[in-house]
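Bug #77: duplicate submission created two jobs. Keeping one. Sequence:
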Amino acid sequence: MVDSFVDFILAQDPNQVIILLMLLSAIENIFPPVPADLAAALGAFWAVRTGHSPAWIGFLCFAANQASAVLVYYWVRARGEAVLRSRLFRSLMPEEAQPLVARNIDRFGGLGVFVSRFLPGLRAAVLPFAAIHGLTPARTLWPAAFASFLWYAALTIAGSALGLAYEEVKATVAAVTGTLGLVGLSLLALAFFFLWRTARDRRRRKLNLKEGR
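Kept job's structure:
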């Protein structure tokens, strides 16, 4: 499937290719399974192959990704209360644990956003989550933009350096993304376990108070 995609973009009009790569980069923040990392690396590969500037292509992919991230952040920020009351959010995040999460977000703030934007398992979720818990745009969007800029720069350099060696591009991106993805999923699992345990302990304390223990 990926090989067919590469053949497809190499045969298309350059303007259409650039728009496609930007769309793939942007959609990641709305639908995380979209391979935005692969799009950025292949964009640099395509640019070298076709005589375009890989730095310019990388910047366009970064700009598209960041634009959609900002839109998602402000959309969730404007509807924070509705999101907090939604059944889906409450099923994922118990109400008893939400104040604790809010305090931790306020404590780590921009540093947490910066680190999370490097982790595929958490990258798309960190901005909406920060918006829900009131992290300001300055403490959210600037760290996110800086992290994304570094990440897209690294992908562009990797794709450009490997040039026409497509198999090496695919293997390198898959290895890096896979490793970071495992780290992100592990952190996410630990976070949910901690929140579940906190909510359970609070329910037990409330039950004990009601029973007069």
